[in-house]
Here is the input.
Amino acid sequence: MKSRRSISILLIQFILVLPGIAQDVNDIFDDIILRIDTSEYSFTRDQIQFKGQPHLPFSFSEPAAVCEVELVPASGLDLADLKLHPSGDFKLVDSLQIIRGKFIRFKVRFVDLVNTSFLKFTFSHPETSLRGSPLVEINLLPYTNTYLKFYPLSEELFIGEEKVYELVTNNIENIHFNNDWVENSRMNYRITKTFNQIQLHIIPKVLGRLSISIPFKLKRPMINELGDLVFDLPPIEHRFYVSRTRLQFLNLDRQEITLDDSTQSMGIEVQMDHGLLMEMQKTYRVENQEKAGGTLIAELFTKYQLTNNRVLCLLRVYNLHRNAEGYLYIKDGDVPRFITNFDITPKTTVSRISIMRGGDWSENLNVYPGETIDMRIEGVGLHKAAFNFEELEDVTSDSTIRGENMALYEFKVPMDVSKRRLELFNYAQPMGRTLNVKEYQEPRPLDFIWIEYQGKKHRISDLPATNLTDGTIQNFQFGSDPDMIDTDEKMYGKQYLRMDITVTGRRGELIDVKMINDIVICPGIKSPRSEFYNYRDCGLQNFDLNSYIRTQTSNLDIWSTIKIRLSHMKEKYGGRGETKEFDIVLRKDMSFDIEVSFPAGLITVSKPEEGAEDQRLGQLTGISIAMIAQFTFYHPEKINVQRPYKIGAGFLALNTFNFSDNAENRDIGLVVIGSLYPTTKDVKLTFPLYIGGGYQLKYQKWFFLIGPGIRIRL
Here is the structure.
């Protein structure tokens, strides 16, 4: 096997040494077979000589067809390392593969068989690569069956009038034509391609019978019955009858003219079809009726004929006209020569702009950063306008809702809009209408406000209506988190707040009243609009409430109440706003005071003396006087609600008003005493129950007592 391969390489080298033989396909391949669609083509059987070179012809129906190629090497040659050179005319789909050691197969997809010239397969071998030349080139000749037919619906033509016909073909890309006008003594014609159709334009020049014969060439040939290549289609031939001219319709290059001072006095240059009877350097009247005496719509002055069979004209317009109102007649004096039609519309003028934000239309032209608005523009001549507001983004999805007198748009205001007034432009021309950019001024929920006392911060939106606090309030701070005001999802803008402070004592007496109106909190630097806010009026974002009230919070008595009402200044928000009211109450678990009361009918039990036989339970005393320093206890969850018991110590004057048989039973005692009081509030006279014990100073003995009393509150 190795010796056979060596012999093949020697044969290839020998072939390349011979001049002129290296390019011969037959020296390398016994045959080349190409399969496309359902057809098969052989180089040995089907080759055609074209321009002095053998070509492998094949028929195609699609310009991007896929074909399969089989290469049968010449006897004795081993082309295992054969390579296909890449080309921009085709793409290799399947690489070269040796099938059963007999032939090489591959598959390619052509790019464009119609418009590709010099199509070929170029092969090389490692031995030929050393010499810098290809091993062999296979010339390909694609051909396709193409027809072009003419079916005129009318055989009547008018002299000087252009008539357009459609030509029917099965392969429009393979038709070669020149779209310039071809002129002769009997007619002018040209071929054009419009919307994937081939059209024949004819302008007759003579009356009577007119026979036409128009040749066509092909880009890719056909093969006739004799096997010859044919690059010419049968000519289009037909006979027409040419009548005398009727009014020729002339097209303008502009279908709409604006009536303004410039087009009325100076005029506007237009290009118009060249009519056979049209004279140069002449002024024609353009009227709205064929008869004499029509309304003068415009004047048309013909300057000179252009090379594209059109005429450069100067058009001055004087009245409005719509296509739907009928044709316009181009007259020489009162005699109509041609007809045309175009719109003459007024200058674009805006009379009113309205904005809608999910509700009714409003002429309030204030817009806000980041919002999307619907806009209605009313006026005249709006259908030809191209409106845009500076810095706004047009996000209109439907352009059909724009007419001559009204146009609907959808605009998005950028979050980083920098101007305060946005002007309306039409094709870069200002229209004298503006939008006002306003910063958001919405009342935000008061979750960005906090107060600090007793060393703790409290967000006021989380505070209950009543807040009990122990101890003395030394510092009472009000503050805010400006970065919470504006977010990417929702903008609120500056927050204008009012704070009402009322301080009352433990009995509800008024101590202080203060109103703070100049609280203005601006959004922080994290706001998308931070660089555009005016911060000059921003104040009192953080302050100490003690600087505004006369009685400092550190001097307030127990059960004093600080009432705070924080609200938006609703006049800044159209009557809307948030309000938060809460009380801060100074409380203690207990209080200490000195009280004078009158225990009455106490039962006292003294320690019996040694050897005494008197073991009575106790004796009833008269009315006593007690001066007690005692502790009052309060309910932990209620305001200024005392527990029904007190504990204290002091002096007790026993039997001050004596009701016993022994008038000498008076004494002074040191006592520790507890009392039970009724919980009824605001009662000056109460009757507590006392229990306790102490030491009698006169008799120098311990005693225990229990009994009712009389308590008077001053």
